[in-house]
Amino acid sequence: MKLRNALSAVLLAAAGLAAPVAVAPLAHADTLICDQYGSTTIGGRYVVMNNRWGSSAQQCINVTGSGFRIQTQQGSTSGGAPLSYPAVYLGCHYSNCSPGSPLPRQLSRIGSAPSSISYNYVGNSVFDASYDIWMDPTAKTNGVNQMELMIWFNHTGNVQPVGGRVGTTSIGGRNWDVWQGNNGGNDVLSYVAQSTISGWSFNVMDFVNDVDNRTRVDRSWYLTSIQAGFEPWSGGVGLAVNSFYAGVN
Question: Which residues of 147-157 are buried (b: 16+ CB within 10 A; e: fewer)?
Answer without folding.
Answer: bbbbbbbbbbe
